[in-house]
Amino acid sequence: MGGGKERIEKGRRRVRGLLALQFKNGVNSWEDLDENLVGSCFPCGGILVGWLISPLSFPSSPPPPQRIQSSESKREPNQHQPNPSQPPPPLLLPFLHLPSSYDHSFIAAVVVEGNQQQQQQQQEVEEEGMTVEAEAPFHVLAVDDSLIDRKLIERLLKTSSYQVTTVESGSKALELLGFREDQSSTPSVSPNQHEIEVNLVITDYCMPGMTGYDLLKKIKGSSSLKDIPVVIMSSENVPSRISRCLEGGAEEFFLKPVQLSDLKRLRPHILKGKSNCKGQKQQQPQPENNNNNGSSSSSSSSSNNCSNNQSNKRKAMDAMDEGLSPGRTRPRFSSDSLTVV
Amino acid sequence: MFAEGLLDQQFQQLQMLQDGSTPGFVAEVVTLFCEDSERILTELTKLMDQAVVDYSKVDAYVHQLKGSSSSVGAQNVKLACIQFRQFCEENNKEGCVRALNVVKHEYCHLRSKFETMLQLESRIQAYENKQQN
After folding, report:
1. B17 at interface of A, judged by CB pairs closer than 8 A
2. Which of A231, A228, A222 is nearest to A179 (CA)?
3. How far is CA A339 from the centre of its chain?
4. Is this model's pTM higher than 0.80 or not?
5. Fewer beta carbons within 10 angstroms: which end of chain B, N or C?
6. Least CB-CB distance to A148: which of B16, B63, B71?
7. B65 min Cα distance to partner chain A (Å)
8. By the 8 A CB rule, do A32 and A325 touch?
9. Pick from A76, A79, A18, A82: which is nearest to A289 by CA?
């Protein structure tokens, strides 16, 4: 069944991304995993029915299935039953209901990958996790009257795994954003009315008609759009211009020509913008067992991402949301002899 | 081209952005740059031919050209534009006329190099395609 396979594949990638992000300290016992069961449905259609843990990955045998299934069925996506006697383990292992032979090697592969990627740059994995995971990767609206610069910024953004729309003027940008002059009482949730949803606007400063600064002011003055982060670019390094823009609400000011490394500075703003726009703070109000500076993650049905203290942790997963304390250090689990399905 | 100062490291950035999924990126940008530049240079020539030069218009065009040459890494063209803008600010017609010629000269030089480069690349590409088949 073609559709099913695709979903499974999607689910795999999702779990892979999820694990890689969360698998900070490795796991060395079944108990570690067991405590963090969260039942949830993958958007790809899989149904979470319990843990599947590869017998190859861990030294001891897996917990009995009944326990797994019953605990799963009790859970709701956002709830978590922490074991008061231990800090919550860092790992969360949702999975798909798959034929059992499939399951084991799949999870094993994911666990291995999670471990291996631990040792590499996490950024890369986060990228994969983000774009593959989220149904809609972060969407940037780029505004520039120069065609060459539009091409360039589009390529830069796409290379950084953002979804991009380019327009040539501030007025077109406002149109796309659904800006209405007389908006006053729109709630600050998603600006996603009939128009596209945008997570960040990056605009040239010098444009005929409406300058980047004008556009910035319009966006910040609009109740529905004001939470969208705005970044301004200019080929001219004029300090007064820069401070004016920053004071006007711009998050960053890039000097042209913009480079790939500059785009890394976008991430914290885009994350913050998302969580503001959605008006959701999923993880923040869980102080005691939530140590946010590690592998904590937030659930995401494609457009929720809570920013954490560390803005470079991007969470784009479904199904989990809390209590993942990275505080524990565990010996790294290494297993390099697993077959990847 | 780098050694001669025609192109700076921004051009390398462009090359880095090209990958398997976007094989024609550099060529596309280069082509766009050439078309854009020629359009601007034509306009500038017209403007400078007038008895009374509208320096603000001239400056606006030069600014555009400076921007696109900077984005593409066309260093000499960009530097020539910067010079040009100086003369604009001073409303110095003679200086502007000379500067325009410098820009044109630099641009033509660069364009012929680009043409060679693109031809070479497409030959290499064709060769590689043949190899794969």
Report:
1. yes
2. A222
3. 28
4. no
5. C
6. B71
7. 10
8. no
9. A82
Query: At A94, is the secondary structure helix, strand, or coil?
Result: coil
- ipTM score for this prediction: 0.90
Cα radius of gyration rounded to whole Å, chain B: 17
Closest by CA to A259, choosing from B27, B34, B12, is B12
Q: B70 vs chain A: nearest CA distance in angstroms?
A: 7
Among B residues 43-72, those touching chain A with beta carbons less than 8 Å apart: 63-64, 66-68, 70-72
Q: B28–A146: do the CB atoms touch at under 8 Å? A: no
DSSP E strand boundaries for A224-284: 230-234, 252-255
A131, A144, A152, A211: which to substitute to probe chain B, counting the most B Cβ within 10 Å?
A152
The total of other beta-carbon atoms located within 10 Å of residue B79's CB is 18
Half-sphere exposure of residue B57: CA atoms within 13 angstroms, side-chain side:
12
User: Which of B19, B29, B67 is opposite residue A151, by nearest beta carbon?
Assistant: B29
Residues of A within 8 A of B73 (CB-CB) are 257
Largest CA distance in chain A: 69
- Cβ distance A235 to B25 less than 8 Å, yes or no, reads no
A200 within 8 A of A249, measured Cβ to Cβ: no
Q: How far apart are CA A54 and CA A33, in angstroms?
A: 12
* Tokens at B84, concatenated: 């040009």
List all residues of chain A from 147 to 206 with a beta carbon under 8 Å from chain B. 147-149, 151-152, 155-156, 159, 206
Place of tokens 């689990």: A333
- Ordered per-residue pLDDT tens for chain A, 341 residues: 445 666 656 655 655 555 444 444 444 444 444 333 333 223 322 323 233 333 333 334 444 443 333 333 444 444 444 444 433 333 333 333 333 333 444 444 444 444 444 445 455 545 544 444 445 678 999 999 999 999 999 999 999 999 999 999 999 999 999 887 765 545 444 444 446 889 999 999 999 999 999 999 999 999 999 899 999 999 999 999 999 999 999 999 999 999 999 998 888 888 877 666 554 434 434 444 433 343 333 333 333 333 333 333 333 333 333 333 343 444 444 444 343 34
Residues 203-232 on A with a CB inside 8 Å of B are 206
Give the number of A-B residue pairs with CB atoms closer than 8 Å: 47
Q: What is the nearest CA distance from A129 to chain B, expressed in angstroms?
A: 20
Measured distance CA(A156)–CA(A236) in Å, rounded:
20
For A107, the enclosing helix (H) or strand (E) is helix A100-118
